[in-house]
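Good day; I would like, with your permission, to put a structural problem before you. A protein sequence and the structure tokens that stand for its backbone fold form the material at issue. I would ask you to consider whether the tokens describe a fold that such a sequence might reasonably adopt. I set the record out below, with my sincere thanks for your time.
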Amino acid sequence: MENNIPAKHTIMGILVHVDAGKTTLSEAMLYLSKSIKQLGRVDDQNAYLDYDIQERNRGITIFSKLADFSWNHTQFTFIDTPGHSDFTSEMERTLSVLDYAILVISATDGVQSHTKTIWELLQHYHVPTLIFVNKVDLLPFDKSYDDVMEDLKKNLSD
């Protein structure tokens, strides 16, 4: 508690189709909140939340994991979930406890079939969702903002 302002507590999950950049975003959030001292990478097998040997060897998240961090008088419990469709049940187990979700979508790949599945599950569990469009800085990113928005509207929701 800082300046006599009580901290709020929020449980958020990060959900994604595989290879949309979830681990990179997770690492950045934890790093910027000073919860970790250095950024890890999937390719270097040193991502903070992918500590299981199977995950490091395969380069994917298999198990949901928790991390805590603080930001602007809010205490977050952050749940990192698998993005591969083979592990959807592992991701779905977290939905009933979330205050909100971040759905990461790769701008270069657009909305994938697994993204639609995740979206439907979020709707089913009534989880307020923030859509984070990732990888807009990668080449060859030949889509416009309007193209990305049209993809989101067509495949998810207005």
The chain has a mean pLDDT of 87.
